[in-house]
């Protein structure tokens, strides 16, 4: 196995999904952490790197001889931040891909391709945008059992992608017609 620096973050390029919690922890699943979630192809070389890092995180606490077996068991039990997208195939873009989720109690750095800080209002990060996240994998065997998670350190917009949901954004004035006073009103009979 390749030697890994446990303090060096992994940079993973993926398709953004549910980007709200990147900017606002109140929109996160547990409302006390910022979160980034994305989709990646199962054969992407970054996936293999992440699996190696995850096994190394397990080995640090459980020993190298048991680490691979424990990690395989955690994957089977869905106790790893890398998930099978087919389990959520009803959601746009998930089928045939892997889902990666990283979170943090600290606000992540969020930047564009030139490393300028961006906000949600800039509209660069949306479901379907290509982003790069900086994450640190970790392993725990605590009161809730064993699992491998990932700490979110930052998010970078890479490029536009194909939006995963229809619509998006607020309406503008051109979306509406002027309503004349003499127009029949719709009524429910």
Structure characterization notes:
It is a single chain. The protein is of the alpha+beta class and 189 residues long. It has a single domain, classed as Nucleic acid-binding proteins (OB fold (Dihydrolipoamide Acetyltransferase, E2P), Beta Barrel). The protein is 19% helix and 30% strand. It contains three helices and seven strands; from the N terminus they run βαβααβββββ. The chain has helices spanning 20-23, 45-62, 64-76, and strands spanning 10-17, 34-40, 82-84, 98-104, 109-111, 130-142, 145-159. Strands 3-4-2-1-6-7-5 form a seven-stranded mixed beta sheet. The longest helix has 18 residues, at 45-62. It is elongated, with a radius of gyration of 20 Å. The model has no long low-confidence stretch (mean pLDDT 88).
Total helical elements: 3
Shape: elongated
Radius of gyration: 20 Å
Tell me the domain tally.
1
Which homologous superfamily in CATH is the superfamily?
A: Nucleic acid-binding proteins
User: What average pLDDT do the residues reach?
Assistant: 88
Major sheet strand order: 3-4-2-1-6-7-5
* Counted beta strands: 7
CATH fold annotation: OB fold (Dihydrolipoamide Acetyltransferase, E2P)
Biggest pleated-sheet summary: 7 strands, mixed
First CA to last CA: what distance? 71 Å
Classify the beta-strand content into a percent band: 25-35%
Low-confidence stretches: none
Give the helix/strand class: alpha+beta
Main CATH class: Mainly Beta
Question: What's the CATH architecture?
Answer: Beta Barrel
What tags apply to this protein structure?
seven-stranded mixed sheet, elongated, 3 helices, single chain, 189 residues, OB fold (Dihydrolipoamide Acetyltransferase, E2P), alpha+beta
């Amino acid at each position: 196995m390749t030697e890994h620096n446990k303090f060096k973050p992994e940079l993973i390029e993926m398709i953004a999904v549910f980007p709200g919690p990147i900017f606002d922890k109140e929109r996160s699943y547990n409302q006390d952490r910022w979160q980034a979630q994305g989709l990646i192809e199962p054969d992407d070389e970054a996936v293999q790197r992440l699996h190696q890092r995850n096994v190394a995180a397990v080995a640090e606490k459980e020993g190298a001889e048991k680490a691979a077996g424990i990690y395989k068991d955690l994957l089977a039990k869905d106790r790893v931040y890398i998930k099978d997208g087919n389990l959520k195939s009803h959601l746009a873009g998930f089928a045939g891909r892997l889902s990666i989720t990283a979170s943090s109690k600290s606000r992540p750095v969020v930047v564009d391709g030139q490393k300028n800080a961006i906000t949600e209002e800039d509209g660069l990060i949306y479901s379907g945008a290509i982003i790069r996240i900086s994450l640190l994998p970790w392993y725990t065997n605590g009161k809730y059992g064993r699992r491998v998670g990932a700490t979110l350190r930052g998010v970078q917009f890479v490029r536009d992608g194909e939006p995963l949901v229809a619509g998006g954004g607020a309406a503008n004035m051109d979306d509406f017609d002027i309503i004349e006073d003499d127009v029949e009103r719709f009524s429910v009979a």
